[in-house]
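@channel sequence for tomorrow's demo:
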Amino acid sequence: MVFRRSFSPTFSRLGIRLFVIILTVNVAIAGLVFVAISRSLDKGFIEYLDHTQTRRAEALAEELADEWELRGDWQWLRTSSRAWHHLVRRQLWPGRSHSGPQMDQLSSPRDFVLHDANGLPVVGVPPSGKQSLAELRWIDIKNQGQLIGTLGYRPPQQLMARVDRLFLSRQRRNLATIVAALGLASLLLAGGLSWWLGRRTRSMALATRGLTQGDYSIRLAEQGRDELSSLAQDFNVLAATLEANRKARNRWVSDIAHELRTPLAVLRGEIEAMQDGVRPLNLDNLTSLAQEVAQLERLVTDLRLLSQSDDGALEIQLATLDLAASLEARLEEASGWLTDQQIQLDTRIEHKPAWVRGDSQRLRQLWTILLDNTCSYTKPPGLLRVSLKAGDDNWLLSWEDSAPGVPSDELSRLTERLYRVEGSRNRASGGSGLGLSIAQALARAHGAEMQPDASPLGGLRWTLSFPASSESPSNFSTETPPGEHNS
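structure tokens (generated this afternoon):
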């Protein structure tokens, strides 16, 4: 089952959060930019106003001197305020018939005051009253070196109040427009993002909910190369792993039930036969029952060992020992067993001693399982070749036997639990199917890994790599504890 993303737009809490976050960030950025630009313009703007206002006042003073030379006094300005306004506007904005209301906010005839040579006002009184005359800047008006009057004008600092009001009113309108535009853009962006994320995460949420309910066949569509696509890929890997584990668990339970059912059926049949008088209750029949019980005991013991290995609780006591001596001792003990099976032993141990960190009992159990596997499947007359040589920082053990071999597509499954290459449940030829699984668990407990491949002898070859130990005990005994574990 593959989940496809839905393309129906929906509103969600995620979309609302995205909208609020994006809008807040955009408005904050716009406000910071506005404040930064306003502050950076203040100083430069004041300097600009100071220079402009001084230049205009000087030009107006020159024009007034020329007019005084033509007229001989200031009476024409005292009697006509229109003439004063016309003169100032012509000097402030040459070439324009009128300044306009916005220009009047920056500079107007009311910002200039004219006094005669005696200091008496001719025209212009500051709106705030006569007490503000001292705050004005003054320029002397001269004609042929003679003082004929003074011209006062407002400094730029006094004009800033009106300029600030004008500037702030404009910026408020601009900022309102910007905020409205940012709100719309944030809404569209948040809506698009929430719809895009929502349609991708919604399928993941539904798939996860199905996964928690036990539906491991769910898969997500993998599209794109972003993080969500990687998450979908990881989800599919997780679902496939869980599905494989469930199948393996079901197969494992089924196989265990089969393995237990066979000896139990034999026990039940023999006991019922003795109860019915079909078979006598003698030593031979009791021995047959004991063999079946022993088979059940070995199976339970193997299952317990594998369970301990899976839980990381395998009982093992590592100590520095000679791997070559442990291997030679077990092969020497098994020489009679190999002879009975018509299998010739070829031992090639190139280096002694071979120090490793290991458990002598568990290594003996590992050698026994490999011997049992060779004796069970090698056709007589056969050959078993065991070699041990030194690697860079490890010891390489090769265990290979003669025909029959194992198909290449079956090699990777040899260590699966309850697996037999012949595909049957004949316990007489294939054992319980747990031996190689136990061998792999024992090898891993020693830091080694079992790798199967085809043997040049025509059968199967196992390659084990044991980490070499830097310790070398002064007193080392090659004796191994008695007893062995047969799988």
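heads up for whoever presents: The two ends are 42 Å apart (CA to CA).
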